[in-house]
Amino acid sequence: MTVSLPADAKTVQLEFDDNRLLPQLFGSHNSHLARIEQKLDVILQSRGNAVTITGPASSADTASDVLNGLYARLKQGLDVESADVDGALRIAEHRHAADLAQDASGDLAVHTRKRQIMPRSHQQGVYLQTIDECDLVFGLGPAGTGKTYLAVAKAVECLIHGEVDRIVLSRPAVEAGEQLGFLPGDMREKVDPYLRPLYDALHDMLPGNQVAKKLDNGDIEIAPLAFMRGRTLSNAFVILDEAQNTTAVQMKMFLTRLGENARMVVTGDLSQVDLPGGARSGLQDAINVLEGVEGVGFVRFTEADVIRHPLVARIVRAYDKAGNKAGPKKGHGS
């Protein structure tokens, strides 16, 4: 790879003490090194257990931080895949090497039965810390930023460690104008399509037989929002997903279900409101009412935090740009 270097180019030399970890650090055919080169506009040359980094001073330092952070992750027994390299690059834009190494040591890791889950952006790390610190957290932003996935991961971790007795996962049954009564099947078959993303997240974190067992014995409950009325949810980790599709009355009802030794995470994207008739989103209403209330945390994601295919971030950015030109829409809380 040919890189045009500035006059103040810097060279950084790194040495790693465990050669067995280097194939994972460098990636197949040095693909991880190539990824860092491309993102940071630097040159990486590996020889034995050493890597030489050459490029603009700030970029060379960032590349050094990323490699040291990923190596610390490997020393903890965690894998490094291309998505982890991308995550380390995003985090490095906000943090120094010591923070990257701290993340890799497991301080921000979420431990589930099937995997350890690490933040892949600075804002994901903020989100996990906020969930630890606040009893009620709102995760706001576009699809693909990990809002729901990380919330489910924290819920599973709390259940495994005995911090809560059960997990309650809920969604409003509002999708593109469809109504439950018009869908085929019994109630379980009617609501399952709305709740499928929550099932998928659970199966990523627990063996399939454990998911089935915990669903059967009530340790994990997945239900539409309408089923929450009249209940008090104590000793539970409660998640409301797709909260932009709640009304103000539904949102107040849900938030007041919070009982003793319970914590709650509410996730949503105000650019994806499917409420009929331009109704105002209960999520926007809750933000307006609860911002600044003690014990309530708000974490806002942007397209920069999208961790799916890189094209997803560009799609989100394009729609945001088009929406700004068109002006605010009814029901989107603008």
Jot down its keywords:
334 residues; alpha/beta; three-stranded antiparallel sheet; 12 helices; 11 strands; globular
Description of the molecule:
- The chain is an alpha/beta fold and 334 residues long.
- 43% of the residues lie in helices and 16% in strands.
- It has 12 helices and 11 strands.
- A 6-stranded parallel sheet has the order 8-7-9-10-6-11, with helices on both faces. The protein has a 3-stranded antiparallel sheet with strand order 1-3-2, covered by helices on one side. It has a two-stranded antiparallel ribbon with strand order 4-5.
- Helix 10 links the parallel strand 9 (236-240) and strand 10.
- The radius of gyration is 22 Å and the shape is globular.
- Mean pLDDT is 82; it is low at 328-334.
Strand-residue fraction? 15-25%
The chain-level mean pLDDT equals 82
Biggest sheet strand order reads 8-7-9-10-6-11
Structural class: alpha/beta
> What is the helix content?
40-55%
Q: Flag low-confidence runs.
A: 328-334
Major sheet details: 6 strands, parallel
Based on CA atoms alone, the radius of gyration comes out at 22 Å
Dominant shape? globular
The run of helices and strands is: EHHEEHHHEEHEHEHHEEHEHEH
Give the number of helices: 12
State the separation between the terminal residues, measured CA to CA. Answer: 46 Å
DSSP strand count:
11
